[in-house]
Design brief:
By secondary structure, the chain is α+β, with helices and mostly antiparallel strands. It contains two helices and seven strands, in the order αβββββαββ. The chain has a five-stranded mixed beta sheet, with helices on one face. It has a two-stranded antiparallel ribbon with strand order 3-4.
Length: 106
């Protein structure tokens, strides 16, 4: 339940950063997205153990920012808004849309 509450908190923060509600959590393939947008998916938790007990759990998300403009300002400023965020791989263009991927711990 705590993870779901944190995810909803993250969703609202992403909407605020983007300046719109074009934020999609695990969107189905038939959804028509509006750009610019943010798409995010959860990663499996990263657990830390000691004395045969799980004592720490890290939750992360793959976050993708998609925009028509290759110089979209959020591409560069996104990691500045989160303490634990790194750019994953390189930026790429597909179907006249520019994509940048991040790994975000939240």
């Amino acid at each position: 339940m705590a993870r779901e509450r944190r995810r909803l908190e993250l969703h609202e923060k992403l909407c605020e950063l983007l300046g719109s509600r074009n934020v999609y959590y695990q969107p189905p393939s038939n959804i028509k997205m509006k750009y610019p947008c943010i798409v995010y998916h959860p990663n499996p938790s990263e657990d830390r153990y000691a004395d045969n007990l799980r004592y720490l759990v890290y939750y992360s998300y793959n976050v993708q920012i998609i925009a028509h403009d290759p110089e979209y300002s959020l591409f560069d400023s996104f990691p500045d808004n989160f303490m634990f965020c790194t750019e994953n791989a390189s930026r790429f263009e597909s179907e006249n849309l520019n994509h940048t991927n991040y790994k975000l711990y939240y």
